[in-house]
Batch of 4 targets.
Target 1
Amino acid sequence: MSLRLGAHVEQNDPLAEAADRGANLVQFFLGDPQDYKAPKVAYADGAEALKVRAEAEGIDLYVHAPYRLNVATLNNRIRIPSRKLLQQTLDKAAEIGAKGVIVHGGHVGEDDDPEAGFDNWRKCIERAELPVPLLIENTAGGENAMARKLERIARLWDAVQGSGNEYVDRVGFCLDTCHFHAAGEDLPTVVEKVVAITGRIDLVHANGSRDAFGSGADRHSNFEEGEIDPAEIVAVVKAANAPVVVETPNGDHGQKADIDYLRSHLK
């Protein structure tokens, strides 16, 4: 089985990071993931050089949107800047030839109607320009999250598909193994269930979990050191048949070991 395999890396020189891990795919931020500042390319030679060199080296680039983004919220002071920053991130990702932008599903307040959050997603996609694919990622915790549980993902997907955006086919799904484990969704059946909802999986975040099933905690671990059976992670990757980003810690038994583990078990 031949899949594109890579990791989340530092943004200053993602191509060197790819070489260090033996990867043909990398994901990174464009700026501070905890800020609303406009995205920027940290690569010293600029966006065009990064695009050209990545293509020459056969490295696929993915961009993760800032964590602060929440286009679902009813709070205007968060939702409006979030929409703006998401569009800026999509546009900047296009400049480097990225294969997609990954964004978390977000949430509404504890006492808010989740239907309002789904409608905010609809409005976001309705108005968005999509120069590259936008991949919505399932999330680990939050009782009023838009993309934690499968039934919420189904409502979110209905809303997005009803946006009327002529490029809505560029909105895809990113499946995170740690997040579904933390959300209390069974990994052995989750790919089939997601595809039944969305019709697609565009990217897999292959991560172990430091915490127990259903914990709601978003804490990634390396494959052989966490609470998820590594065989289940491999099975998800096989079933999804999509490019893979490893977002595990990069310590002594780091990302390269996890990439190598996947590669050896996907033969």
Target 2
Amino acid sequence: MHENKESLNLQQTGINSGVAQKYSPHRFSVAPMLDWTDRHCRYFLRQLSRRTLLYTEMVTTGALLHGKGDYLAYNDAEHPLALQLGGSEPDALARCAKMAQARGYDEVNLNVGCPSDRVQNGRFGACLMAEKELVAACIAAMREAVSLPITVKTRIGIDEQDSYAFLCEFIDTVAARGGCQTFIIHARKAWLSGLSPKENREIPPLDYDRVYQLKRDFPSLRLMINGGITTLHDTREHLQRLDGVMMGREAYQNPGILARVDSELFGEADPLPNQAAVIDAMLPYIERKLSCGTALGHITRHMLGLFQGMPGARQWRRYLSEHAHRPGAGAEVLIKALSCVQH
């Protein structure tokens, strides 16, 4: 079902095979962000760009295999869509990869970058950089189980293991023994103790040159860069040296930046002319979700930054923040909030 609908979506948006061959699917993506990139966020971001590769929040193998919720639910319009997994048991990861393939995901990504204590206690995330043989085994198990692309998102180092040689050994092992051909590199090392996850996204210095050198030393691998990227100008600069760029917090807090991705990075028409058109495109989705019992605020919380940097942006944020969480709030809240901008 997913494959048929995706084929139709590609035809409708003009993404033909020639374009798909011209540009890597990883040319531009939005990072997996816990508590942010849920299905409502991804549907919203998709209205702004048809070509951006979207990632789920990290989902643990334990949640997928033993949890009661449907952690793989998504809307077909979210394609291209990758599932990020957290785990370190090859068999469990292989089972989850099979689930992802059955549900129509376009890629499975292994998290080797999250530094939180909770993640470390589960023996996954950035601490796995110290266990390159295990990571290779995890990738190999997933690749054997499914035909989907299996990718890795990692850091440039952890704690005192932050030399370039350490990074090269990790990449070489996971590529050669695991068969991974695609890596997303967060260009900061991670401190596994002493810094919070938020601090780990800001305090360790960025080292883009190290990622550039990695591409020179591993030219056959597809390497994407992540960390501190806030403009499409910077994105284009990175694309001169690397295969792709992953944008994180900027894409969430200033989603309007995605409205120019298709034209500026893929040479295609942008899907909608302005932010007001994005809201119009979201209204049918919101109505459907409200009828199923979803609270308006669960959707609109992802839309607060839509008018970032534009006149009326503060009024838009304030009105949504004050009214979207009220009992019985409906789509009329967005219409009223939009009037705060258009005056």
Target 3
Amino acid sequence: MPATRPGPPVGGHVPGAAALSPDPALSWSAPPLQGAARPVVSFGEPEGYDERMRARPLGARIRPRTAAAAACVVLGLGLIGGAVTGSWLTGDTGGSGSGGTFSAAAGLWHSVPVDDLFPPTVQGTGAGPGGADRTWTRIAVAPDSGCAHAFDPLLRKALAPVGCHRLLRATYTDATQSYVTTVGLLFTKADSAAMASLAARFKDEALDRRTDLMPRPYATKDTVAERFGDKQRASWTISVLTDAPIVAYAVSGWSDGRSVDTPQPAAVASEAGATTAPAQAGLGQEAQGLADRIERRLRKTVGSATETPS
């Protein structure tokens, strides 16, 4: 894992859906290369987890008492539904393994290259309406920052108990350049108890479905997301992780700048029979599908950081 601090320079975006992509080894602070070919992102073989929550290939021998848990993890990584996005890893959160995972996750924002967290291209097999495939291309990366102007006042108030250590964001467009989606990773200052408390509150009070608690998009000039502002937010998802000090989210809209009168949470917009404009356009799947895949990469990165060499 590179030891460089992530964070592209201010204004560090690339114009249009056909934008050039940085080398995967680049850090957040390194200047973008010109003329580099966009890498294709592929996902490795799924991994299982042992009783200490250490990643191991599924081909390896798994003890009978952990086989069921490992199978559940693998199946979970293949799903798109909102139930997956609310958890980091299942299991005992009080052991040393979970503590190591929590600590490792807290430092990812300055130790992992931007392409490892927000890859230039994300494949969404089966992520669209009716199980259609999706491909998302990164068109802008925000400099790592605080949260002063990143959230609406009520959402900022709801997140205040866990604090804001650093915020990372990137904006993607689909293959047709019809939709734009901002995905964000808020690294908090909280411990595991505070994260669990916030997650419980979001679930019990359905805060992730309130239209007055939508995340804000990240828009940049000279890209198809240039007109992606607060009034263009159509669908969104928010996930408070409990085994990492991170709140992950995504918000989607149309790239043509049209305003949205009735935004709808991704979990609702993705339901069969939903008839709102965001649901019919598949914007719920855009937000949910991209958020899920960014979270998977996050889990895999943390797993690699905490895995004990054999």
Target 4
Amino acid sequence: MPASYAYLGPEGTFTEVALRMLPETATRELVPVVSVPAALDAVRNGEAEAAFVPIENSVEGGITTTLDELVAGEPLMIYREVLLDITFALLVRPGTALSEIKTVTAHPAAQPQVRNWMKAHLPDVTWESSASNADGARLVQEGRFDAAFAGEFAAERYGLVPLVTEIHDAENAQTRFVLVGRPARPAAPTGADKTSVVIWQREDHPGALMELLQQFAIRGVNLMLLQSRPTGQGIGNYCFAIDAEGHISDRRVAEALMGLKRACPQVRFLGSYPRAGVAVTDVRPLRTGTSDDEFVAASDWLARCQDGRF
């Protein structure tokens, strides 16, 4: 397997900045690719050891392209996550004034994060999406657009200037990125972990989703993300992407996953991995009996009963 990481390029994306926060990138070749599907396909095809892609932002939620690519196709697994604070700059060719801007571009995920700023300062401009924010900067460099929303750090790379900086509609906006590789044994638990799965309902009936979510609730497992995605099999057919606190080796999480597998026709495990920016997960049991120690004690009691050692 090549010692390389594929990421959403070109050079100068927020994805590249977040990727370089991982210490191991010092010993990897970082390969920019044109899209999230291309990055994940590089792993599936054996062209890269791992892919680094955005999966969620604090303004719009899950990045649907990434979620859909992880749901479909050959299974992949998440190994790490990185959180990056996001603020945009309006990048233009030197000499361009704000009043001269008629067209602007950026990645689709950027638009909800600068929409109100655009209404106030560029109400009549035409927006067109680009493959990434850095690719939008490249298109401005080539003269295809007047301006691009991107990281200020991309300006020098593409011969542009930041006309306006610190643009964001929401304070403390963040994007979550994940390092994705081929399936393998998850890393050992750290005490501050996250487990990601995708589930499909057996049938649609009143309370069907609640029945599945109860597998987590009755075991005191907190959910951090729940997002529905269409299966492509007709209106009303959805699967659900879930992020839960804890590691698959935690007894409460393992039993919740086993409960899901019994109840669901299909469950895709996407990985257990360290949570970014958290030292220890605070387990908040809703009732007694949901700590790992209590799960272990109950299992030991059952084994003694089965052996006649009550």
